[in-house]
Amino acid sequence: MDMHATSVPGPPVPPDWFEMLRRPAALGISSCVHEFVHYREMVPGLFRQVETASLVVPLIISFGTPFAIGLGRDPSSDETYGSFAAGLFPGQVVIQSTGFSNCIQVNFTPLGAWRFFGLPMSELAARMVTLDDLAGGDIRELRPRLADQADPMRRLDLVESFVTSRLLRSTAHDPVSEAAYELLLRRNGDVRISRLAARLDLSRKHLAERFRAAIGVPPKTVARIMRFNRAQQLARAGEDWADIAAACGYADQAHLAREFQEMSGSTPTAWKAAA
């Protein structure tokens, strides 16, 4: 979990209220995994985090109380999840916890998640799938092995070794979807999908079907998230909103504002003030 949390109601959570250890993925698997994270809340309370649309596919292995999670809104009382994986979602994700959460999080790239889980990523898109429902008994067996380790660094060692070994054994591979994703990434999503399909000698429909199986959502959705993420980077660097809209390929500033509202739940100005 990215900790930009607020107590509910109240100000931002002080850093000594939680413990977070981040480990970047080793070079050999960095195209599949961004990082490994150990997260533990240190004081009781009700905390609320809002994550904006991203291209991270998280695997959460929990040892504490479950998280309440809502896609595009605050979660309802029955939307609680312990250990789970979540696919891509082009909108804000609202996460609530009670101060007793404790977990390991593996942040996969979309193609890395496909290789790791060996499932069509469309089965994870816009939903949380519990560890019990994920294919592969070895993933389910990993949780008690991690729980037996009290030392956070040993837990990170164990999960990194497990993920690396499973990725090296993976056979999930679609050169077309991989090439399409890399081309989109290279242009920060500023590519017409019809031109992308033509470059790969596919119909737009055929490209969308293959891409959705490998990534979970259509190429148009991934392109929108990439442009939105690029706009966030430029805004953090202090660029003017009109210049950001032009640099990222939005039709105008109003177009950028609509995308921010859909993918972050906020106006550009409100998002930047809270970032």
Structural class by secondary-structure content: alpha+beta
**What is the average per-residue confidence, as pLDDT, rounded to a whole number?**
92
Q: What is the N-to-C order of secondary-structure elements (H for helix, E for strand)? A: EEEEEEEEEEHEHHHHHHHHH
Using only CA atoms, what is the Rg?
A: 19 Å
Give a quick account of the main beta sheet: strands, pairing sense, barrel closure: 6 strands, antiparallel
- Shape label: globular
Discrete helix count: 10
**SS strand fraction:** 15-25%
Count of distinct strands = 11
Distance between the termini: 15 Å
With strands numbered from the N-terminus, the spatial order across the biggest sheet is 2-3-10-5-8-11
Helix content: 40-55%
Low-confidence stretches: none
Structural features, described:
The chain has ten helices and eleven strands. Helix 2 packs antiparallel against helix 3. Strands 2-3-10-5-8-11 form a six-stranded antiparallel beta sheet. A five-stranded antiparallel beta sheet has the order 1-4-9-6-7, with no helix packed on it. The chain has helices spanning 110-117, 137-147, 152-169, 175-186, 193-199, 204-215, 219-236, 241-248, 253-264, 268-274; strands at 6-7, 18-24, 33-41, 47-51, 57-62, 67-71, 80-81, 84-86, 93-97, 102-108, 128-130. The longest helix is centred in the middle third of the chain and has 18 residues, at 152-169. The chain is an alpha+beta fold and 275 residues long.
